């Protein structure tokens, strides 16, 4: 989730209880380590609460669908009479209200969603009508300083400060996929619902997640890792990923003046952090969902570590997910058709320096 003040508060309470228990056992050094973690969470919490308030102030009341996405597309099961060639309808798969118990038909198994592809889920979203032209924060030259005054009849030059913004574009890109089906399938509600909800949508959304991270389409989505201006952490730490994340957090705060809210990392790196033991044989990290005050995001599309403020970029959907039926090639004479799902979206990165990336190759280098 983008805004996680409740989760952060719950994590803070756990750390407070842990610190109290350590003090009761006279483990002062360990308690001080926990105190540092609490301070980091407090800093992140203050930032996230402020961003949540901004979102509430600018949010619009949206109509919430009262049906699942398949029901939005196919209509009520009792009223379903099959799909016709040329059928097309749009729906919103992001919000579903369950109004009654749902029976899962196990004889039609759906595809399992990817367990850890969720970087895109941390970004905010605002609808767009097409490509977006915007201003991207760029470098600052100079800074205010003391004026030397007048000396020997000459006035000293005052400090010049230049703030720069550069024009940028968030280009839309359509992500689509289709499934060949028999004509008989168009009359089978359960099979259609399974194809739409448990297969096509998952694949399209997973592809979108990868594009938001590593996309490099010069006429479409440029992922954050390929966006000019993001910060790079290239210091070799000999595989001490836990320490690198803390250094990267400081780098973003110092250079971008943003408080990172999330840390996205490859599951192999997260596993290494979880299993790392100190010289005394104790695990360094107990595997909760927070590192240095930031929510942990595991994602197979991220090859290293990405520390970032999730409010520095946002998804800009142009067309929501749509589903349509039609013929491809010679399917007309083969009693086949295709069910196509697609969405058009863009990625707007307003503050590139709110993202700091380190490759695993650099992190594994021996410390200088």
What can be said about the biggest beta sheet? 6 strands, mixed
Number of helices: 7
- Arrangement of strands in the largest sheet: 8-15-12-9-11-10
Strand content: 15-25%
H/E element order: HHHEEEEEEEHEHEHEEEEEEH
Q: What is the count of β-strands?
A: 15
Fraction of residues in helix: 25-40%
What value does the Rg take, in angstroms?
25 Å
Weakly predicted, low-confidence segments: none
Outline, from the CA principal axes?
Answer: globular
Average pLDDT reading: 80
Q: Terminal Cα separation, in Å?
A: 37 Å
Helix and strand composition category: alpha+beta
Keywords: Membrane, Transmembrane, Transmembrane helix
Protein name: Phage major capsid protein
Transmembrane segments: 221-242
Subcellular location: Virion
Which properties best describe this structure?
single chain; 368 residues; alpha+beta; 6-stranded mixed β-sheet; 5-stranded mixed β-sheet; 7 helices; 15 strands; 30% helix; globular
Characterization of this structure:
The protein is an alpha+beta fold. Helix content is 30%, strand content 24%. It has 7 helices and 15 strands. It has a 6-stranded mixed sheet with strand order 8-15-12-9-11-10. Strand 10 and strand 11 form a beta hairpin. 30% of the residues are buried.
Give a quick precis of the structure.
The protein is α+β, with helices and mostly antiparallel strands and 368 residues long. The chain has 7 helices and 15 strands. Helix content is 30%, strand content 24%.
């Amino acid at each position: 989730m983008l805004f996680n003040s409740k989760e952060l508060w719950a994590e803070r309470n756990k750390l407070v209880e842990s610190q109290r228990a350590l003090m009761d056992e006279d483990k002062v050094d360990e308690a001080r380590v926990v105190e540092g973690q609490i301070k980091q969470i407090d800093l992140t919490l203050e930032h996230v609460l402020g961003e949540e308030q901004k979102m509430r102030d600018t949010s619009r009341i949206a109509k919430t669908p009262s049906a699942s996405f398949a029901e939005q597309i196919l209509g009520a099961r009792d009223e379903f009479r099959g799909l016709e060639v040329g059928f097309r309808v749009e729906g919103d798969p992001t919000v579903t209200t369950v109004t009654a118990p749902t029976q899962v038909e196990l004889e039609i198994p759906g595809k399992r969603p990817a367990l850890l592809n969720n970087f895109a889920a941390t970004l905010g979203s605002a609808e767009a009508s097409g490509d977006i032209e915007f201003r991207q924060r760029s470098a600052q030259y100079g800074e205010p300083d003391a004026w030397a005054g007048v000396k020997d009849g000459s006035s000293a030059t005052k400090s010049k400060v230049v703030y720069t913004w550069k024009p940028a574009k968030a280009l839309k890109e359509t992500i689509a996929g289709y499934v060949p089906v028999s004509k008989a399938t168009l009359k089978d509600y359960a099979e259609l619902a399974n194809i739409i909800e448990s297969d096509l949508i998952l694949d399209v959304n997973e592809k979108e997640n990868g594009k938001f991270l590593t996309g490099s389409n010069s006429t479409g989505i440029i992922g954050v890792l390929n966006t000019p201006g993001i910060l790079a952490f290239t210091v070799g730490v000999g595989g001490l990923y836990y320490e690198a994340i803390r250094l990267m957090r400081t780098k973003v705060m110092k250079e971008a003046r943003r408080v990172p809210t999330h840390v996205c990392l490859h599951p192999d790196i997260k596993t290494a952090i979880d299993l790392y033991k100190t010289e005394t044989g104790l695990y360094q990290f107990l595997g909760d969902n927070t590192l240095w005050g930031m929510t942990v995001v595991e994602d197979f599309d991220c090859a290293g570590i990405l520390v970032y403020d999730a409010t520095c970029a946002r998804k800009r959907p142009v067309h929501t997910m749509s589903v349509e039926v039609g013929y491809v090639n010679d399917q007309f004479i083969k009693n086949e058709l295709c069910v196509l799902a697609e969405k058009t979206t863009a990625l707007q990165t307003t503050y590139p320096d709110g993202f700091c990336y380190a490759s695993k190759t650099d992190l594994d280098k021996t410390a200088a």
